[in-house]
Amino acid sequence: MTSMNPRSGVVINALLLPSLYKALRIRNAFYVGGKEKRTDLHNRIAVLRAERGVSRAEVAEAVGVNPQTIGFLERGDYGPSLDLALKICEFFQLPVEAVFSRHPFQPMSQQLYGGQ
């Protein structure tokens, strides 16, 4: 059984859909109802860059990706591979849990000063 994607004209074999869905879900950027679902992985890349005065291009060059990829990661449009996440942590010289989290980070002011 096959179906055609009306937007792209690509014919998709229905038997491959579960495998395709799983592969896309693993990348943390899969489509639901025609809209891209953003990643559930949160990060502090933008905060760390600002704190250290580092550009996206500098981070990208250090970890071997395009500067656009760093922007996608910062916005949560893309979930990094384990290798990329570890390279980013090495660049900032921080443990993984200081840069990435499955739950939203508390604002720094709350963490430092206990404010609301």
From TrEMBL:
Pfam families: HTH_3 (PF01381). PANTHER family: DNA-BIDING PHAGE PROTEIN, TRACRIPTIONAL REGULATORY PROTEIN-RELATED-RELATED. GO terms for molecular function: DNA binding. Signal peptide: none annotated. This is DNA-binding XRE family transcriptional regulator. The lineage of its organism: Bacteria, Bacillati, Actinomycetota, Actinomycetes, Streptosporangiales. Gene3D superfamilies: lambda repressor-like DNA-binding domains. Keywords: DNA-binding. It comes from the Bacteria. It comes from Streptosporangium sandarakinum. SMART domains: HTH_XRE. Residues 45-99 form the HTH cro/C1-type domain. Coiled coil: none annotated.
